[in-house]
Structure formats: structure tokens, C-alpha cells
Amino acid sequence: MDDVFPIPVRLVYVHPAEERGRNVDDLRSKVAFRAVLFDIEDSAELASWLKTALTVDAVLTSKGWMEIPMPDPASPLPPAFELHLRKALFADACDNSKEWARTVLRPFPFAVLGVADLRRALEEPLPLPLPVGPATYATLDPSCATQFIPTSQYPAERISACVTTFMNSRVAFCMSENQSFWDSAFCNLWMELLYLSEITSVQLNRSVTELSGASTADARPDLLLWISNRLCVKFEEKRATLEEAFQDLTKKLGVLPPQYYGPVQWMLGVALAGPEMAGWAVRHGQHAPDDLFGRLNMVSLGDKATCLRLSVNFLRIALTISDFYSKMNSLPRPFNVLPPASYGSLGQIARTLRIVYPKVIKEVRSWSQHVAEGFTTTALVTRAYGLGAVGLVSGDVKVRGERYSVVIHSVGYERIISRKDDLWPAMQDVLHGLHALHQAGLVHRDIRWKNVLQCPASNEGWMLIDLETVWKTDCKPSCCWLRAWDENTLVDGLYTRSSDLYLVGRLMESFSDLSPEAKEFRARLLRHGFRRFIDVRGRKVLVATSPNPQNVKNAQTVFMYPWDSDEFDALTTLWEEEASQLDVMELEVHEHQGDDKIWNWKSWCSALEGRNLGEAIATGAQSHGISWMLLHLTQSR
After folding, report:
1. How far is Cα 501 from Cα 443, in angstroms, rounded to an integer?
2. pLDDT on residue 208
3. Looking at domain 335-534, which CATH architecture does it have?
């Protein structure tokens, strides 16, 4: 045993799962030793054993300090337990852990953009040897001993605790649902190093979001390493084979769109199975990942040393690419659990969101209360998610007892729109989504920017989400007043299709630098200007017209969106003087859209002569976004 005092002292045990987030400074005056046990699984079992095995007066557990009676100092150590006591000298003057962490955790002096750069970084030796206990150091083969330094020569107890534990670990005695012998090499070591070096941009967590693999009942959630919101390293830990872990890695990382990669071409995947470890670089659009360091087996002390070097270099790689991703926080993490939200009259309804790219799993607990408070019904929300329309989120709904869940088919992310040119595509998709809801006799009722997301997997299209508030149109609300509503939302006390469009107008209120047509469109939304066509007739409006009154007889009767009919009539008036008006609009297109749009514009205009309106619309759809004046003629992208 390393560094055991011959006299009774205070012993402190900090369970790995309980150590996170603790203020180590508060422990410095209390800690003399730190015990790391392999066969004892929790603090309660440890405390029970310490009462009869060692001379201690207290032990730290998840519930605080537990007083331990003083047993017979001569009590022997039970042979069934492998116990490593390590001197825990937390005073900076006596411990070099912080110095070691800050010296080693530095970016590489070269870029790590491609796979060749990644291999080079992983093979780099550490700037300082790894601290390890003297007894363990004495067992090392000379070929790998050069990568270590005994703590008797270089005291760095906080780091050597993880290193020594891993070097002495045996897989068969260190696997459980909550613990793994890999923890000492990765998550526990990383937490120590990041804390000591005061690095906050690099983060780690476990993928509790996944539907299979390590999140199942017989295995643990997999470890993830992030730089900001960019996934740097994903682990896949299996009890079966390395090949199974590899298949899961490629399946989960291979589907990520290029937006999740950014300027760095790779994502690093690490497979763990039993005592074996392997790593690959996964690149977007590439069928076969690139092998990085072959297959390691932790039965070999040399491979354990390589594993520890790779572990520290993973952190250094994340720091090296950090400059590329420091402003990438708007993109969601592809594997993430968002903070739960509570709502309802008594706050007893809970909603959770799990992102498992390319899907999102939303759950609502106490679903009967959600329905009772008038937010929606199971039948209505199931119908809404099943529409599958452009601009509207889709998913598969299940209700089991009090648990409501929907597996959403696409991942979106919030994006702050700062330019008016970016506003039009979002509004277009929102209106398409609303059209589908309104055609089904439903209204959304909670339209705000929080519920309008951009979709990285669909050419940056937009979708309206959060359908758990849908209701039948033209009804008096029985739910509480929703956040997006104001005193002008309802129409004669009813929530109507026009109420939805009013909320769309509110989305546009923060934009002042809009064209006159856009401002007029917004004004009509906010004053329920389309109510005559939507709420009174309650169906699509059939419109037959053409810019040239002489061509009306040649125009085909077409279906127009209900919110477009007034706009269409306004255009008819504008185009009574056809030649001059088209020239004016052509100038507007040239000024705001550039020369590349002129050809499409002229092609569309020429289609108005001698052809029916349906063909003209099809041609006009090729130049979507030309003008706010073509809102009603722009089809789905």
C-alpha cells in the first residue's frame, strides 16, 4: 500500500459520482487521505465497512459527513477488498496537480482540421510524464515507465489518484450499471484536469438521450466531450464486442448534417467493449470511418499507458479547435437533454425534451392534467403531428397512462433573425404550416419565435413546432392565457384562424426596415385584415383573376391560401396598368435581388401572356422570394 501513515488519522472517501461540483477548497483542512475502492459500490457500504476495518472518525457521503465510531486500530484489512489509500495533500504548496494540469492542457501548436492532423495530435507525447503512485510505478515495464513519474518525486496526488487507479484496475471487478474501470482514464481524470486548469469551454456529459445502446437498463449512458456546442468525442461503451460498439458509433455520427461539423472535417468516435478500445474519425458523407490508433487491450500496461495519453490528448484537441466553435452556441447539441419545464395552474405538468439526432423525443407527464386544463386533446395533437406538411413539425404520438410522448422526425434549432432578407423564408414556411393546420380545422394558438425553428437537415427551411396547444378553430379558449397572446388576439372572444395570423404579424413587429408591401402585409395581419375570408366563410377562397383584365377569361381557377386572397386582389388593382407596373416591379427586383433574379422574373412575367394562371404560378415558383408582392404565388420549396 502506498503512503499509509502508521498512526490513526481522519479518512475521507469521496465517491466518484458524488465528487462532481463539490467545493474542494472546503475539504482541504479536513482531508488527510482519500480512499478509492473497486469492490465497494456506494458510500453506505463503505461507511459500514469502515466502522470495523479502519481507524477513522468521519466519512463524506452524498448526505454530508457521517460520524464513524472509532474501531480497534489493530483491525486487519479484509482480504476480499482491494483498497488503495493515497495521501491527499490538497494544499497548493505541497501538491503539483494544478501546475501539471495547466502545463499539459494547452492547445497543439498546429491546426487539427483534417484526419492526418488528428492522428498526429493523438500520437503526440504529453508535455509532462503522468504522476503515479510509487508502488505502481515500481511494477511498470521500462518501455512504458518513461511516460510516468512517481509521486515521491513529483507530488501530484489529485491526478495520480486517477492514474494509479486505472493502472491497477481490472475489468472484471470494475463494471456495474453506475461505474466502469474506464472512468478513471476518462471522465474522472477529465473532471480533475478541467477543474485544476480552470477551463470551462470544454465540457463533458453522458448521453442519457439515446434510445438504445448504453442507455439501456444493463449499461450506462455514453460519454460525450464538447467544445461549446460542437461534439468533439463520442464514446460507445458495450459489454459485448468492439464491432457492435463501432456499428453504433457510425450509425449515430454518420447521420449528422454538415452544419454539425463546421470547419473541422471530423468527429472522433471511441468504442469500448470489455478491456478493448479503438477509435475512428467519422467524416460527413464518408461511408467508412478512418481508423486512428488501432485496437488497444487494457490487459497490457503499455496499452493502458497509451489510453491515458490519448485521454489527455482528447482534451488538448478540443482546446485546439475551440476558436472555430466559440460562437456556435445557436446550433443544438445532437445528443442532449434540455432542462425540464413545469407549467399548468399548479405547475404540476412536466415537459422534457431529448435530442437524439435526427429525432427529438418530447415527453409530458401528467397528460390527463394537460388535457383537463384545455391545452389540447390526444386526438387533436395526434392529428396535427400526422399532417406532415411543409413548415410544420411532424411526429409519432403515444400516450401510455399519464405519460405522453412524441418522437419528432426532425431536429431544429433557434436562430435569431437580424436581417429582413432572412425574415421572408421563415414567414413563408410558417404560413405553409399554418395552412395545413387550418385545412385540418385546427389552430396552433402558441405562435412565437421560440416555436419557429430552422432545420439543418432540410436546406435550412423553417418549421412551426410545439403542437401540444392545438385546438379546433372558432372556439372559446378553456386553457390559461398563453404567453404569446395579448388583448387583440381573440376575435369576439373566440380563437380563430385569424388569431393565428395575428400572432404571425406579432412575429414581424420587431422588424422596422421592411418594404412598404411587407409593412402593409404585417399591418393586415395585426388588424385581422383577412378575417372576412377566413372566419366568415371558413374555407379556402376560390380566386380567378389575372394582372391583365383582358386575360381573365383565359385564367384558370386556382386554389389560393385563405390569407392570400386579399393580397391577390390588391395585386389585381396594382396591375391594372400592366406594362408600367411590371416595369416598376422589375426595377424593384433588380435593386433588391440582383441581376441573377432578373431572368427568372422576366420568364415569369412572359408566362402571364397567353398562358393560364396555373402555369404562371408554376413558373413563378422557380423564383421564390422575388418580392413580398408575390407572397401568394410562391409555392412550397
Report:
1. 10
2. 61
3. Orthogonal Bundle (1.10)
